[in-house]
Design goal:
- By secondary structure, this protein is α/β, with parallel strands linked by helices.
- It has one domain: Pyruvate-ferredoxin oxidoreductase, PFOR, domain III (Pyruvate-ferredoxin Oxidoreductase, domain 3), CATH 3.40.920.10.
- The protein contains 6 helices and 6 strands.
- The chain has a 6-stranded mixed sheet, sandwiched between helices.
- Helix 1 packs across helix 4 and helix 3 packs across helix 4.
- The longest helix has 20 residues.
- It is globular.
- It starts with 12 loop residues before the first strand and ends in an 11-residue tail after the last helix.
């Protein structure tokens, strides 16, 4: 990665899109992120769009976060795109505003023609935690680190409300490991920041 300093640009309205395939928990991730923002006292709008197949098709979900009342609930120009497949990245890059950022899974997304990119091994983190489906919570760990609009504590609280009790610890572990990797990435020399945890 060239730089992480521009991932968070203070703005009264922050637009984020999580995109991937059905079965990756895209919508659940955005719901948990939205609930975390509410717990932090922010105004939030959350929406989603599924592809033609419930599993394996395209899945896109958006979260708009603001310090004031939200007058339009859909994203207009993305501050941040989280892409968990190459197709999702290709389809959604054009929606990012100038100066916006992209976070991707390093094993599933290999081509990102964008200036401000962080590539982390979410799939591997999830598998290490014990469930490949925890890829979505690993991604939220990176989002929380690079974009301090949401506190990690609120994400963990929202996670506990939304996930089955038997799955909370695995997902919490994936979230925390990705959060730590992302935090370490921000302090590394820029020449080594293209991909973390490789």
């Amino acid at each position: 990665m060239k730089s992480t300093t521009n991932f968070w640009q203070k703005s009264p309205r922050y637009e984020l899109r999580i995109a991937g395939s059905g079965g990756q928990g895209i919508v659940l991730a955005s719901i948990i992120l939205a609930e975390a923002a509410l717990l932090d006292g922010r105004c939030v709008a959350q929406s989603q769009n599924y592809g033609p197949e419930a599993r394996g098709g395209n899945s896109v979900s958006e979260v708009v976060i603001s310090d004031t009342e939200i007058d339009y609930p859909l994203a207009v120009e993305l501050d941040l795109l989280v892409a968990l497949t190459q197709e999702a990245c290709d389809r959604n890059l054009s929606a990012i505003k100038e100066g916006g950022a992209v976070i991707v899974d390093s094993s599933l997304v290999t081509k990102v023609p964008w200036e401000n990119v962080a590539s982390l091994p979410f799939s591997r983190i999830a598998q290490k935690a014990g469930d490949a489906r925890a890829i979505n919570m690993a991604a939220l760990g990176a989002v929380t680190s690079f974009c301090p609009i949401i506190s990690p504590e609120s994400v963990i609280r929202a996670m506990a409300k939304r996930l089955p009790a038997t799955k909370v610890e695995i997902n919490r572990q994936a979230f925390r490991e990705a959060l730590q990797i992302a935090q370490n990435l921000k302090t590394e020399p820029k020449t080594s920041q293209r991909e973390a945890g490789a």
